[in-house]
Write a sequence for this structure.
């Protein structure tokens, strides 16, 4: 099954523009006086799964949140450097942040469905975009739920509260909610760390299927998960990008001592 | 020092704490229950017909005794002596009066089976023994024909009203118009109208005479007679002969009168409808004003305001505003809203009517606005509390779907905080419905001739003064102590005020429960 999506391995240190979904250039980010991200430069390949690993507190969430400018919500946050998406710098002050966030979806560690019906959750983003037509919304909700492999479980209770779903279903609902906007990039910040192993496996399979629709960036604590699902892996340590290459290489023959220490469990 | 903690084992300490809290809680409950029982019993007594006695008592002021039909309640003074509160009628006070009689001055007291409590339309009461009816032709039909005769009287009254409305008031208006146009006194149009007016007036007089011929002949306990026009009688209750069923009917109709009619005899009888209406309408307007303002202020404070010392200071002063005595708000309302704001509005828009003020006088709108200011802190504090409970994860989820701050507030934060908002509104309603002092400064009055809502444009008269249950109760509490009936009308009004607050609260709580279920997290 997974074989279907296998493809040639790219050299992420030397990606062409056409193969790049996001390009980060000299990104520095501070929370107050704390220098959280330091001189990050990288290219994230299109339609691949890229994993970010590293000790907790090393800046993984902050880095992916820079991709949809969610860090703007924190008053003490400052940043420098550029992030290119579709050839434009999203850190530019004229960037339309609302539109950017419809292009770059995000799923968080804890499932956070809104206290509304399943239908309203999935159509939330579209309704914000001004989509009002009932047919249009119905179709979008159905296809998003199908993409998130949740349709069969909820098709008879679309108008019941999302709160009654199980944790794994809620997380897939949140994925569907993001997919409904047809994003180019989907950011998953430790999407399975609050779920049981079986549900985790289910979501991992889902990701493999989703990468033909969008570029996936996943933050994870769990190295087995990174090795299992991702095509490329980036290792972050104390706000710096230490090593970034295809997952096979990173997990079998890491170049840097710090990476080796981390993946062999010598710290963290 | 040997402290309590060292003397007791942990288990003992725990049970000690539990018994103290349980004791205090039951004390509180007891106080609450006794207030309720007092109000329900005294308020209920207002509607329950009390028996009529034939009583003979000595009046030391005139050094004579008299025999009357009366309703009596006994009360024990602090000194231990017993005093009777007596409501009675006799030849010198045919329409009822009240007095206090010392127990040793009461010579005789016996149930008077034949006597009746005759309620008149003006709110007064005659205690007497009905004998027979009197009609125009001088015949004396028996009491059993009462209903039939009453119907005829009512038909005549209707006819008179009809003439007044269709002819007399129209002619009166036309004449007034002639006055305005300075038409001469002997102009033919005026003469014709005058003649017309006289004709219809003569007819109503005739009908009135006809109607007043229907009378009820009654005898007081001392044997003197009185004839009461049937048109004046509201109802005749032969209390002592009534069955339980009839008494319950009387109570029901009494409650209905109480709820649906205007007060009579300086708020001691009749109903409290205008006050009930005024109270509910004022609370309603207050809610409409305070909710959006309170919610907007809370949203600003907790979502938009920078997190600095200035915001903290504002927050503290908002909480402190909840502790300002209500009369201060009343004075503020009078000084700022009524005189300053109202006065300036008058100068701007109603200058032609000055010096008579239009907006620059206490009225319903200023009262609702004052109460809104008074309850604003409660709404702000409760709403902020509700907003704080919205999980950051949900806000982030909304932003991550491309929502702006305003959209996130509107579609995610406010719905989830709505039970908190409702809590604030509930507290505001409870507070506003019970306030009296500030209202008396800004628009509530003992008696208002018109309701603030009627069929006349613009239907809702925000500038009118209005009646309020709290004011009615305050007013009732100052009636003379001999006025047993008036006092229990006050208790009945208390009971009603409690019911109003209860109902308003229950409605709000139900709404909150629904919202909570819907936005359960
Ligand atoms: N809103 C914030 N305000 C201040 N410091 C923050 C904030 N968010 C994260 N940080 C700090 O930035 C660093 C990186 O955090 P984060 O990106 O969440 O780490 P990770 O996701 O890798 O565990 C941490 O030291 C954390 O304390
Ligand atoms: Mg994190």
């Amino acid at each position: 099954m997974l074989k279907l999506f296998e493809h040639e391995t790219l050299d992420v240190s030397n990606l062409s523009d056409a193969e790049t979904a996001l390009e980060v250039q000299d990104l520095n980010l501070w929370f107050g006086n704390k220098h959280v991200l330091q001189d990050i430069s990288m290219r994230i390949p299109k339609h691949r799964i890229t994993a970010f690993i590293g000790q907790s507190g090393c800046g993984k969430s902050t880095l992916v949140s820079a991709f949809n400018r969610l860090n703007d919500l924190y008053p003490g946050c400052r940043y420098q450097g550029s992030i290119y998406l579709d050839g434009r710098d999203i850190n530019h002050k004229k960037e339309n942040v609302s539109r950017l966030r419809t292009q770059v979806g995000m799923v968080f560690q804890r499932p956070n469905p809104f206290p509304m019906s399943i239908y309203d959750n999935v159509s939330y983003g579209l309704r914000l975009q001004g989509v009002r037509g009932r047919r249009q919304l119905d179709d979008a909700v159905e296809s998003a739920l199908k993409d998130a492999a949740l349709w069969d479980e909820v098709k008879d209770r679309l108008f019941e509260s999302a709160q009654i779903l199980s944790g794994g279903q809620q997380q897939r609902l949140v994925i569907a909610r993001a997919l409904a906007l047809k994003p180019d990039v989907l950011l998953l910040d430790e999407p399975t760390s609050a779920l049981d192993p079986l549900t985790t496996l289910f979501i991992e399979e889902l990701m493999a299927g989703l990468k033909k629709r969008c570029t996936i960036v996943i933050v994870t604590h769990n190295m087995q998960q990174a090795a299992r699902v991702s095509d490329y892996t980036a290792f972050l340590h104390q706000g710096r990008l230490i090593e970034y290459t295809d997952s096979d290489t990173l997990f079998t023959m890491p170049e840097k001592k710090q990476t080796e220490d981390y993946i062999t469990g010598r710290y963290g | 020092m040997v402290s309590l903690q060292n003397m007791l084992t942990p288990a003992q300490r725990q049970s000690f704490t539990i018994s103290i809290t349980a004791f205090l809680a039951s004390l509180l409950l007891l106080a609450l229950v006794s207030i309720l029982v007092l109000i329900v019993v005294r308020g209920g007594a207002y509607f329950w017909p009390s028996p009529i006695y034939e009583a003979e008592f000595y009046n030391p002021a005139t050094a004579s005794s008299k025999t009357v039909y009366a309703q009596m309640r006994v009360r024990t003074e602090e000194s231990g002596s017993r005093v009777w509160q007596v409501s009675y009628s006799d030849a010198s006070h045919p329409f009822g009066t009240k007095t206090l009689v010392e127990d040793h001055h009461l010579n005789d007291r016996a149930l008077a089976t034949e006597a009746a409590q005759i309620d008149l339309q003006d709110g007064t009461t005659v205690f007497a023994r009905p004998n027979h009816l009197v009609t125009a032709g001088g015949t004396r039909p028996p009491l059993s024909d009462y209903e039939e005769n009453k119907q005829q009287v009512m038909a005549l009254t209707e006819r008179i009203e009809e003439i007044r409305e269709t002819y007399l008031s129209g002619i009166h208006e036309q004449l007034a118009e002639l006055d305005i146009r300075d038409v001469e006194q002997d102009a033919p149009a005026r003469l014709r109208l005058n003649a017309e007016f006289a004709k219809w007036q003569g007819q109503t007089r005739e009908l009135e005479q006809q109607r007043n011929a229907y009378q009820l002949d009654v005898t007081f306990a001392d044997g003197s007679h009185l004839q009461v026009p049937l048109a004046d009688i509201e109802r005749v209750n032969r209390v002592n002969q009534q069955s339980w069923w009839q008494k319950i009917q009387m109570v029901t109709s009494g409650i209905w009168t109480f709820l649906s009619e205007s007060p009579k005899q300086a708020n001691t009888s009749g109903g409290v409808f205008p006050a009930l209406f005024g109270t509910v309408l004022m609370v309603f307007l207050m809610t409409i004003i305070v909710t959006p303002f309170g919610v907007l202020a809370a949203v600003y404070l907790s979502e938009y305001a920078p997190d600095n010392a200035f915001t903290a200071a504002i927050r503290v002063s908002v909480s402190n505003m909840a502790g300002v005595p209500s009369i201060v708000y009343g004075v503020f309302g009078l000084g700022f809203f009524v005189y300053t704001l109202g006065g300036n509005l008058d100068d701007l828009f109603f200058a032609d009517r000055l010096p008579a003020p239009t907006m620059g006088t206490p009225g319903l709108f200023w009262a609702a606005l004052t109460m809104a200011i008074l309850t604003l802190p409660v709404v702000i504090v409760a709403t902020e509390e509700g907003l704080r409970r919205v999980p950051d994860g949900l806000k982030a989820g909304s932003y991550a779907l491309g929502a702006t701050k305003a959209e996130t507030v509107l579609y995610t934060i406010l719905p989830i905080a709505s039970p908190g908002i409702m809590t604030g509104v509930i507290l505001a309603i409870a507070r506003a419905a019970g306030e009296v002092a500030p209202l008396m400064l800004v628009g509530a009055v003992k008696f208002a001739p018109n309701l603030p809502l009627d069929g006349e444009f613009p239907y809702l008269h925000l500038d009118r003064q209005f009646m309020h249950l709290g004011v009615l109760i305050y007013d009732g509490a100052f009636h003379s102590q001999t006025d047993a009936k008036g006092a229990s009308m006050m208790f009945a009004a208390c009971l009603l005020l409690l019911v109003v607050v209860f109902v308003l609260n229950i409605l709000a709580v139900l709404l909150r429960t629904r919202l909570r279920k819907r936005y359960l997290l």
